[in-house]
Amino acid sequence: MTETMTGAQILIRALEEAGVELIFGMPGGMILPAYDPLMDSTRLRHILVRHEQDAGHAAAGYATATGRPGVCMATSGPGATNLVTPLCDAAMDSVPVVAVTGQVSRPLLGTDAFQEADICGITQGITKHNWQVRAAVDIPRVIAEAFHVATTGRPGPVLVDIPKDVLQEHAPYAHPERIDLPGVPQTPRPHQRGLTQAAAALRAAQRPVLYAGGGIIKAGAAGELMTFAELTGIPVVTTLMARGAFPSSHPQNLGMPGMHGTVPAVTALQRADLVLALGARFDDRVTGDPKTFARHAKIVHADIDPAEIGKNRAVDIPIVGDARDVLTGLTEAVRQIGGPTPWPASGPWWDTLEALRAAHPMTYDRPADGSLAPQQVIERIGQLAGPEALYVSGVGQHQMWASHYLPLERPRSFLNSGGAGTMGYALPAAMGAKLAYPGTAVWAVDGDGCFQMTCRTLATCTVEGVAIKVAVINNSGLGMVRQLQSLFFDDRHFGVDCSTPQLPDFAALGEAYGGVGLRCDHAEDLDGTIRKAMEINDVPVVIDFRVNQQEMVWPMIAAGASNDDIRIARDTAPTWDADY
């Protein structure tokens, strides 16, 4: 006989059958019926956050670290709208998140009832799809469809909204035998003609560059990228979202391109005669002024989302497909062409790139008075914690330094908010990652501005035994905004200085939330402080690193400017040995 259950029981059963392990959430009136059967589940672990935004970012952190969809839950009205920022963040970075929200009962829909919000309408533009369930019998089908949509093709967030009375009504439970969504295409296979053309273009190129984006990591294609890169000898640049897809220490890795990219990476793209873009979207932070970006290069663009191809840059050879399939096909096409490999392993192109690398390494000055440089703190954390750790950054100057100075040697080892640039991302995302991999050291590298937006996450970490390490790079202000005011607003600093008085006491705040608080002001204490934090593995640790407020992120390209105008200091640009 078909088992009859409440809609809430059906929801919990459907989530269990979808393979969910963790649900990050906060209860409220309209979702409360779902919390009663959730209490009885032996397969689902609920993580009680202190704000719904934390639930969304934690689900995204879990998903980014594992590749599996993360799940968050909230009540109607303000509970649901607090998920808007993390859903937008997940959409920008192609992260599979499934959000479940409660809603007012069906008779009250459209009446401006207490805590009613049209969350489906609100999130229409920041989810791959959303559903409002009008009958309990439909819940298993909708949940199965939600997970399918979130993970098929280009990953992304989805939302399922369920009125309270739907959760309370009884219905038979029917597990969907198949998912029939004709509007959701299956992942396309790359066309052989495009692969052959791309391989031939690479063979003919004198100055090729492989521009690797976050799609490499989403596709689990790091191994295929390594094989292809070493076979061809092509220089590789890895975007902010692709850091770790190709080991930072690999001799073919020129670093990160774009606004705060390395001089070799930026210049390689500008001088290239062929740009092979894989799983990247030519976003403005990489291209700068699109009219001058890689203006002499033929463009090969491979992406799983056909809407991205040609959106920001005209393309000579388009390839639609999953990055792993594309790289596998390109590798085979290269081998079929034959000839000695790797192709551009030596000669003028690599000579030029090596000269750029030698002339413009990523460096910084250590203060003569023994105080802390922010780059020094981040670099030393990476050296002591090692490439086996998992790193999560907030947004701002510390994010850029982290992307350059941490040992990012493997995929899914660096989590950050790229497309949306969401301050407050780091702590909840680190919590989600640590819950996914409890045996792995997880460091949240955050700024003092970002940290204060979601520091309440520490309470959840303490209660749940999530022993993340939080390095607060404390420059007593909103560092990146201050840098922009310095460079483009004549040093007129307003609304960015948090140093008078020095509030809060971050170490004391860590203690107040049940963790351990440490403080480091001097370089001589840096190693000892980091090692002390690494010895604590039962509660979260907050380390207040007091760093120089005047430090800026270099290199830098002004927003909208040509990448030719890269600066390595405030009034200093590289000296080029030839026009291009």
Topology, please?
Layout: E1 4-6, H1 7-17, E2 22-25, H2 32-40, E3 45-48, H3 52-66, E4 70-74, H4 78-81, H5 84-92, E5 97-103, H6 119-122, E6 129-132, H7 139-151, E7 158-163, H8 164-168, E8 170-172, H9 192-204, E9 208-212, H10 215-218, H11 222-232, E10 236-238, H12 263-271, E11 274-278, H13 284-287, E12 298-303, E13 317-320, H14 323-337, H15 348-359, H16 374-385, E14 390-393, H17 397-405, E15 414-415, H18 426-436, E16 442-447, H19 448-454, H20 457-464, E17 469-474, H21 479-488, H22 506-512, E18 516-520, H23 526-534, E19 541-546
Helix pairs in contact: 1-2, 1-7, 3-5, 3-18, 9-14, 11-14, 12-15, 16-17, 16-23
Pfam family, one: TPP_enzyme_N
Pathway: Amino-acid biosynthesis; L-valine biosynthesis; L-valine from pyruvate: step 1/4; Amino-acid biosynthesis; L-isoleucine biosynthesis; L-isoleucine from 2-oxobutanoate: step 1/4
Protein name: Acetolactate synthase
Q: What is the average per-residue confidence, as pLDDT, rounded to a whole number?
A: 95
Strand order of the largest sheet: 3-2-4-5-7-6
Total helical segments: 23
Principal-axes geometry comes out as globular
Radius of gyration (CA) equals 25 Å
What percentage of amino acids are in beta strands?
15-25%
Helix content: 25-40%
User: Whole-Å distance between the termini?
Assistant: 75 Å
Structure overview:
- The protein is an alpha/beta fold.
- Helix content is 36%, strand content 15%.
- The protein is built from 23 helices and 19 strands.
- The strands form four sheets. The chain has a six-stranded parallel beta sheet, with helices on both faces.
- Strand 14, helix 17 and strand 15 form a beta-alpha-beta unit.
